[in-house]
Structures are given as structure tokens and as C-alpha cells.
Amino acid sequence: MFRSRSWFGAAWGRPKNPHSLEHLKYLYNVLSRNQTVSEHNRGLLVETLRSIAEILIWGDQNDSSVFDFFLEKNMLSFFLRIMRQRSGGSSYVCVQLLQTLNILFENIRNETSLYYLLSNNHVNSIIVHKFDFSDEEVMAYYISFLKTLSLKLNPHTIHFFYNEHTNDFPLYTEAIKFFNHPESMVRIAVRTLTLNVYKVEDASMLAFIRDRTAAPYFSNIVWFIGKHIHELDACVRNDADHQSQNRLSDLVAEHLDHLHYLNDILLLKITDLNQVLTDHLLHKLLIPLYIYSLSSIRRQSEVTMETATQNLARVLNKSLSSFEQQESANGKVSSVVSLFLLSQVFLIISHSPLIRYLAWIILRTERSTFDQGLDKLSEHYEIFKRKFELTECEQSSQLEIESNASSSGSKENLLEEPKNVTDEEKEKLASTPTESTNISEKPFLETVYNSLDCTDNDYAALFALCLLYALANNKGVLPDLLELVLKPRMSPSKSVGRDIKYSYNTHLVEKLLHIVILSCQPSCRVRLVTLELALKLLLQLVTCDGQNVMSDLHKTSIEAARTQSTALLRNFYKSEEIFLDMFEHEYCDMSKGPLNVEWLCMDSAILLPPTGTPMTGIDFTKRLPCGEVERARRAIRVFFLVRDAVLTLNGEIETQLPLTNPQSCVQIDTALDLSIARYNSDLIACTVVWKDGQKIRRFLVIDIMQLILVEPDTKKLGWGVAKLVGFLQDIEVSGDKDDSRCLHITIHRPLSSGSTSRIPLLSAKFVFDDNIRCMAAKQRLTKGRIKARQKKMQHIARLLDIPGQTGPPSPAYVGGGSYVSRGISRMSRDNRPLFHTGRVPGFAAPHRENLPGIIHRVDEKRRKSTESPTRPSHPADTSTKIERNRSRESSCNRLRSREGSPRMPRPRSEEIPLELIKKPPNGVGDIISPKITILPRPQTPRDDVEPSTSVAPSKSPPPQLEIAEAKTSEETSFMAEEGNVTQRRKGIVETV
């Protein structure tokens, strides 16, 4: 009736369509009427600026007339006018203005629209505006705006920001003022902006940066990094109790960011910038602070190993000596921190001129040159570099054959300047770097070698290994510098028919072997990560052209370390289930991947003294073990590491690990021929009830190592598809108190899947057709679990060279399982002292074939009569036999009292070993032979073992169980004919 709503809208002039040119015109009128910011209109201005950005982004993709109107009215001038006001509320509007500009430049895709916005120099005026940076929001949006603009830089847009005539570049010069801002987000944005600027290939702009800003900017960066390093060193010195891990972690992460940023600049390969940056890094940071700090141990101890280790122990005890305080006052850092920082430098930076210089100082600098100062050091390096370039040119001019033949001679000229040397003299020169007298003349290399001493601890040894590994694997280091120090040398003979000789750094190899041998001792203080890194470096030092060049003496040492690691683990070998789980868990954890040294040097926890408590949160491999369980874990890992290193050196392939071969296991959705005896013998129908109430009908197959839930194949008769697969060693079986037909089965995920968490793969209730089938399934599952774990424990025993493990399993497993009473479980635990009385696991196992069944009492006299009279009986054997007889009598008494309860399971003493009826005991086939489809007893030729008198008091449970087995085969009629099942049932009944 009344059109007041539309009438008012028309009066205000707001268009209905927010994405249109008319709406932009309306917003322009709003800005024109509100050019002065106040407390009353600041909300309106904020909403207007937000809407303008939205319309411009829409117009960039849909309507070019939007930008035409924006430029025609010069709307950016309104933005400048608002920013320059000092009235109340202007700061609030500036935040929205910077956010609008940031969104606008970030989302524009049309280059023409971008050129429109960058024209008239309004953007540069906004950049140089003096914002109130005390406001955190203004600072955040401003630096984000600058970074967004830097992403738009290219050879075409660079002239909108860099004015060659006025020699002005406000985008870059204003940004680098915040390189040392307290907020890490601001510092990262500045680094990103500078890299985006350096990537633009414009000669005049790069010349401006080199001449006007490079030297002061890089000098400030180097000073800032040095100050940061002193904070890190103070944190390490004053935090021996691991109370400032978060602070130390932040400092290490910041140093890594610096190195990556510097490396990114060097990788751009801008010659002028790289020269300036390299000069500042070498002469103001890396040499005076990083490398010269390595000489602290040398100057204090005068090359005495004992004093060096005392200094390391003093660092561990958080007590600073007067010398350390003096070094800290002189601008030096501790040698441990220096080794750690240099490792990060060689792992991250790959610029050849810088890396070669640093490597030459560490590996070749002599004490006389070092004492003369930094300038003399640079002169010696220039001489070395000119000789190398001259030698390289001479070699390139020669023929390829002559070059290969004389490569070792030319390298000798470069290293030690020998002239007209013979082959014998070359071999002598090749061995000189390994002599201690020659190493003592190299102060920095000597400090690294002295740090490898792990007699008291491996605190400094870990960082020395990291530095040597980083030096050996940095592509920027010259191969000539690494030969005979961190790389073997091949010395081909000129005479035909002579073998090629190899030489390597024997002094360093002996130190690494000492670390390996020391790690195999029971009470050493060498961490696992130190051992793994030492073995990793050892393999590189003695491997040349894919072959092992170790001497016989060193081969004997590494084999001795392997023997010691095996003996160390043999002390922890026990019959408990936790050892098997621990063994497989450690192997799975180590198989995830080799040690990444670069990631290792990112961890700030290794900078603190080694600790043995897990409460610090440090990874197990980076600390000392705590308690018996962690010592066992450490022994397992030492065994794996040394074993793998020996196999690699010998050129052998691992064939015994892992304990479970995945290729021989049944996988999900695999089609199985259920008519064969391997699967048909243990086939039981059941209903799986999940926790959510879902019910699925499946057939339960118990293989040698696996539990398989099978669904009949609809395409092939007698075939089934595996729907769920789990290892028998990872199952837990328990009965249901309310229903004798039910079993609660939990299958844990295997450790080999890559997950260390033991999340159940299956946890459900299995409902069988009757209690007899339920009893049979429980018995087979528990027996299968025990046998699976026995086989793996025997495999481990063979790996550890434990005698007596090639036969049946240890008696400690006979009483295992969840179905055994507490008394029998306690008796099995009491048998553990067998491993501490000079016996080996499986001592009483050869007589296992007479343990179960109903022929024990008859065969007892036969065993006594046939026993050799010359062999004295062992007291432990007599006591074991008495305990067995007592357990059988008690089992028989329990069975008589339960004759009226057919649902209860029979004791183990009354179980009939079905696998022993068809196959002889202790054979290979007793594990995989069918347990259901057996022949009638009269057809089994066992005259000496099963006489007719061996059927002692007849009992009802055995026939009931065997009839239940026949019923199990009968219900799987889709895989076999019904007549065969009926005939097999009749044969069993007649036997009973």
C-alpha cells in the first residue's frame, strides 16, 4: 500500500546490486561527504573501504569500467588524505585501509588493472607514510601489505617502485628497517620481501642495492646473528638441568632461519651481492666466532686428552671455569656450541667459495698460520686456491688417460707440494695425515678429533661426528680437501697387472671403531644416535667404488664389536612376551628410515648435557637409558645397528629380519582355496558381533601365523575371500561368563604397519553354534598364539647364537596362554631361573612328545627303563618330572569332579595332541599338518609308542571334542562332499 521502504532507499541512493558500477559511484559520494575522519563517521568509512575493495576485485574479473571510474576519480587520493589525518579515529580507519589495500593487491589478476593501481606513485606515498607502528595491528597489516607488493615484482612492474632517476626504492629501503623486529612474523616477512626483490633481473636496481644498501644491511644481519649466538651459548651454559628447553628451542630455530635465508640469497647467484655477503660472513662471523672458538680446548689443555675430557665434564656439571668465563668475555662460545653451529652451516649452506674456505681452515690450517692472524690465514688460502686453479687447468689440457693415471700425483702436488716422488714416497705421504704428530699441528682438526673421545660421555663427540659428516657430504667442498681425511683415496699403479691400492684415514677410523666397541659395553654412556652416526661415517670412510677397503685389523675390530653386541643382547634374552614385542617394535622403529643428520641438528635437546630421565621429553635415541627395560631396548638397537653395518661392509643382504615375512602372509581380499588341508582343517563357522551391534557371518581359519576371517566366494565353489587378517601372536582371547558359546577376541595391529600405538585391529564377540565349537576355537587360538611366539623366540635365539634353540620351544611357553589357571602360570614363572643356572632355553624340550595325551602313565616306566645307565640324572630333571606327575594327578582329580559339566574345557594333561597322531614329533610337518582330518586310530602304525594297554581309564571329554571336530568339518559342506565327512565321523566314533 505504502512504498516507504523503497522510497527511503531511493532517497539514500544505495543501489540494490552491491557488485555494480552504480554501487561504486555511491561509495564515491560517501567518501566525498566524509573526507574528515571523526568518532562519528569512522564506522561508515571502514565499511565503505571494505566495499570498495570488494567491488574492485569483482570488476577486475567482470567489468573493466569499474577500474576506469576508480582511476577517473583518483580514489587513491582519498586513501592518502585519510591516512594523513591526525584526528581521533584515524588510526582505526588506517587499519582497515591497509587491510583493504592488502586484499586488493593480493586478489587482482589482470595486469592492466594492476598497472592502473600502481600508477600516479600513490602506492609509494602510502609505503613511506609514517604510520603509528606502536599499534600491533597497524604493524602487522603494513608489513603484510609490503610483502604482497613484493610478490607482484617482475621486470615490468619494478619501475613502479624503483625510480632510477631519483635513485629511490622505498619498498625495499622501508622494509629492511624491520629486519631486527621483535616479532618473528615481521622478520620473516622482511626476508621474504628481500628475496623477492633480489630475484628481479634488473641491473640498475641490483646496482642500487649493492652500492647503497648491501654493505650496511648484511653487516647488520651478521651483527644480529652474532648477538643471537651469544644468547644461545649463555642458555646452554646455564641450563644443565634442562629447565629452559623452550627458550633454547626458539634460539636454535632462529639460527636455522638465518642460515636458510643466507643460503637462499647465495643460491640466487648474484655475483656482486654474493661477494659482499660472503666477505661479511667469513670475516665478521664464521671465522672469528664459529671457528676460532674451536681452539679453546687446545689452548687450555695443551693437547692433553685427559684435560679435554675434564673440560667436557666441567660443562656437564654446569660449572664454568675461569678460562671459559674469559672466552665468553672475549666473544667466544663454548666448543660444543661451536661444533653444533658449524655442523648446521655445512649442512645448509652450499655456496662453494664460502664452504671451501671454511673447510680448508678446519682441515688444513696449521698452528703457525693460525697464530699469525686472520689476514695471514686469507693469504695462505689465496695461494692454495691459485694452485688448485692452475692444477685444474693443466689437467684439463692433458689427455683423459694421462689425467686418470696422474691424478694422484697432481693431488699430491696440491696438498703437500712434492716433486718427483716415487710410489713408496706417495704411500708414505698418504699415511702422514693419520699420524698424531701431524694432527697436532692442525689446531682445529685436532679439536674435532679430541672431541671424539667417549670415555666419560659422548656430549662433544656427537657434534664432532655431525661436523665431520656435514663436511664429507657438502657438495661445495673440494674432493682434494677431503681425501685421506674424510674420503678414501685410490692410488692406481702405472705398471700393468698390479692391484689398485686404497688408503684412508686410519686414525679417524680407529676413533670411530673405539666409539662402536665402547657402545657395546653394558655400562657405557654412549647414546644410540652417536653410535648410529659413527657407523654412518665409518661406512663412508672405508668404502671406495662400492667395495670395502678396510684393513684386516679393522675388520677384526668391527667383527669383535658385532660379537660384543650379540653377547650384550643375549643377557636380556628372556622367555617373557615383552621381549618379543620389544624386539619387533625396535626393529620396526629403526626400519622407518635412516638417520637424517640435518634433522638431528635441528633438535635443540642435543645441545644440553646427556640425561637419562625420560621426564625431559627427549627422544630415547638422544638420551641415556633409564631402567632395565630401556637398557634392553638399547641393547636391541645396538645389535641391529652393528649387525647392519657389518652386513653392509661384507656386501651381504639381510635374510633373517624381520621375523615375519610379509610375502608369505595372507592379505585382505586374497582368494583362498579352502579345500586344501591347510585351511579346511581349522575352519569353524561363527558370527562376529561388533561393538555397534552389527552381526556378520564368517568362517574362522587359524593358519600357522595368522587368524583369518573368510567369506565364501560366490563365484568359485570351495573358495573363500579373506575379509580380516591378524597375527596370532597379537590376539587376546577370553570366554564369556554368561554364554559358553561366545568368545571375546581382540586382535592388535602389527607393529610392522608403521604405527607404534597398539590400537586394536578387531575387538568383537565371536558367537559359535555350540559350546563345543567354542571350546575348540579357544583351544586352537591359544595354542596358535603360543606356537607363533615360540617360533619367533627361537628365531631370535638363533640370531643371538644361543645354543639349544633349533629344536622344540622352551618349557616356559608350555604353561603360557590365557586359558591356563593361575597356579600353572605361577609355576611357569618359577621356571625362569633356568636361564640363570647355566642352562639354555629349551633344556627339557626334547621330551615334549610325551607331555600331552593319555599315554603318560604307561610310558613313564618305559622312559625309566630305557634311560642310559651311564648318564647320571640331573637333580633338576628329577624335580621337573615330579612336578609333571603332580600336575597330571591334580588334573585327573579335577576332571573327575567335573564329569557332570561337559561345557568346561579339559586340562592340558588330558588333551590329545592331534598333530602327533598323523606326523612324528619334532618334525617340520607337525606345525602345518591338519588337525581335524585325521585317520582312525587303528590305522595308525605306532606299535612302540601307543600299545593297546596305553588307553588308560576312559574319559568322556576326548570323544566329545573329536566329535565336535567332525561337526566342524560337516558344517563347511560347500567345500567338500557330505559323504567324506560322514565317513570320517564314523571312523572317529569307532576309534573311541
From TrEMBL:
Residues 401-411, 867-879 have a biased composition (Polar residues). Residues 49-198 form the FPL domain. Residues 413-429, 846-866, 880-911 have a biased composition (Basic and acidic residues). Pfam families: CLEC16A_C (PF19439), FPL (PF09758). Residues 401-437, 835-992 are annotated as: Disordered. Keywords: Autophagy. PANTHER family: PROTEIN CLEC16A (PTHR21481). Belongs to the CLEC16A/gop-1 family. This is Uncharacterized protein. It comes from Photinus pyralis.
